[in-house]
Amino acid sequence: MKIKKKNLLGIINKNVLLDIHYAYSSDKINVFSRGLFPAWYRNNKYYSIILYFVLLIRKFFSFSNLQFPNKKVPVLFLAYTNNQREAISLIKNKRNDSEIFGDDKFGDFTFPVYKSYILSLTYYKEISNLYKDSTNYLRLSMSFAFHEYWLTYGHFIMLVNFFKNADVKVAIVANDQYLRTRLIPYVCDFICIKSVYIQHASVSLDFPRLIFNFALLEGRDSLDKYLKIGKIDSVVFLLGSSKEPILDEICTKERVYNIGICFGLIDDVLKVETLILEVLKLYDCGNIFLRPHPRESREDFIHEMLSKYNIGFSDSKIEQTSKFFKKVECIIASESNIHLEAVLQNIHSIYYQLTENERQKYDVYGFISAKLIIDYTDVHLLKEILFKLKKKKPNVRSNARYYNDTIGTEFEGQSDILYNEVISYIKTENTNFIDKTFNVENINGVKVYSLR
Fold first, then answer.
1. Is pLDDT of 168 > 80?
2. What CA–CA distance (Å, rounded) separates 24 from 47?
């Protein structure tokens, strides 16, 4: 399908372009000032242009080994990180009309992205003019990610053609902030198919507004935050966590024997080591597991901690979070969605601040203010709670009801069934399951379905 340049520029105007690149263009998220960009990015437009052509060549030569057999895909899932894949895997496993697309690490198949790079070449002038007119944070963003902004137009055209050739009816993403996922609702609207957003982590007030046809959210916490963010264009279903453990996997141990220490991309490694030392005062090294973020690149630090203190290791690039939770009864982390995932599995979760204030907002997900977890950054308080947990671990799962809509219902531990049925409804518009399972109400102009 050919799309005239004039028409495409009308669809992807400046405001839409910045919305598609929300994670990079938004000074609320502030990716580039906080150092959360990929390690190979540089603050240099010309470096970014060279990177564009390097990626074009790389994608061209790698695609032949990964291309998708020519068949129809009525329900298409997208995954570009391990967390995104985890959010959709259980649902995908229930369907025989779907495939997972993404990159060569997390998708079962990849798109012909080399075509996106080629098709975008004629749009250099438009992006260059935007760069010249940009100031302040947008200027910084475009200096780092000029190649990503440039890719937008060709990626739109490629996806339109791919979706039409594969006869896609429903496109489902587990992220709503980056080019490859936030572009999806614009593509779907253009070819009149349905777009669906599924959470892969908790929502922050720094997120963009919901623009998908359907948003499958975990609970009222997510809905309340999106209502504060701005106008919601989506029909909302509250379905619990798509990564929710089955009831048989929920921790039933009454004491804490093993502890997981989880740290993120911008956490201070000196503070992480201090935390390890404090935990070692109460727990043996064999009962402590260090788990870095899946995109953590400070390998030398990890190896040093493992050899220096002889503690256990959970490789989040390989070991799913649910498998990790089977090893521990308690985790300690700073600003991370893993707190909620732990509580859902009845794992006691402790907040310990590991990030400098200027790099991370305090209580970014609102877990502390909502009393889901407690801040134990004070070493004396940390020692006190760890000592108590060695004797008795309380049940904490019920604390997450505000975050997970299935807790206390007949679908507790079976949220994958709900997701599967709702996606079938979106695809076929058959309302039988929907009518008998959900209440529907209008909340601030948003159509919201919640469990009866």
1. yes
2. 17
Look at the alpha carbons of 113, 299, 318, 330 in this order and tell me if their dihedral is positive or negative: negative
Assess whether 208 and 130 both reside in one domain.
yes
Same domain? 234 vs 262: no
How far apart CA 188 and CA 194 sit, in angstroms, is 6
> What's the rounded Cα separation, in Å, for the pair 176 and 170?
16
* Model pLDDT for residues 277-288, shown as the tens digit of each residue: 999 999 999 999
Same domain, 260 and 220: no
Tokens linked to 25: 């263009």
| DSSP type of residue 246 | P
395 in any annotated domain: yes
Residues in the chain: 452
Pair (110, 139) in one structural domain? yes
Q: Is residue 93 part of a domain?
A: yes
Radius of gyration of the chain (CA): 23
pLDDT at 246: 77
The CA distance from 2 to 5, in Å, is: 9
Contacts of 380 (CB under 8 A, 6+ apart): none
Query: Quick check: 226 and 218 in contact, CB under 8 A?
Result: no
The residues that bridge with 446 in the sheet, in sequence order, are 443
Phi, psi of 400 (to 5 degrees): -95, 10
Who wins on pLDDT, 366 or 248? Answer: 366
Q: How far apart are CA 90 and CA 417, in angstroms?
A: 9
Tell whether 175 and 49 lie within a shared domain: yes
3-state class (DSSP) for residue 423: helix
Whether 69 has a pLDDT exceeding 90, the answer reads no
Looking at the fold, whether 284 and 349 belong to one and the same domain comes out as: yes
CA distances from 137 to 143, 150, 176 (A): 10, 18, 21
Structure tokens at 90: 């259980």
Q: Which residues pair with 109 in a beta bridge?
A: 101
CA dihedral 356, 360, 362, 367 (to 10 degrees): -130
Q: Rounded to two decimals, what is the model's pTM?
A: 0.85
Domain boundaries, position 119: 5-238
- Please report, to the nearest 10 degrees, the dihedral formed by the alpha carbons of residues 380, 381, 383, 384 taken in order: 120
Strands of the 109-110 sheet, one edge to the other? 109-110, 98-102, 75-79, 170-173, 194-198, 214-217, 235-238, 446-451, 438-443
Pairwise CA distance, residues 179 & 185, whole Å: 11
Within 316-376, residue ranges assigned H as helices are 321-325, 338-344
My answer on whether 160 and 197 are in the same domain is yes
Whether 101 contacts 77, CB under 8 Å:
yes
Q: Which two tokens stand for residue 122?
A: 């004629």
Helix (H, G, I), strand (E, B) or coil at 292: strand
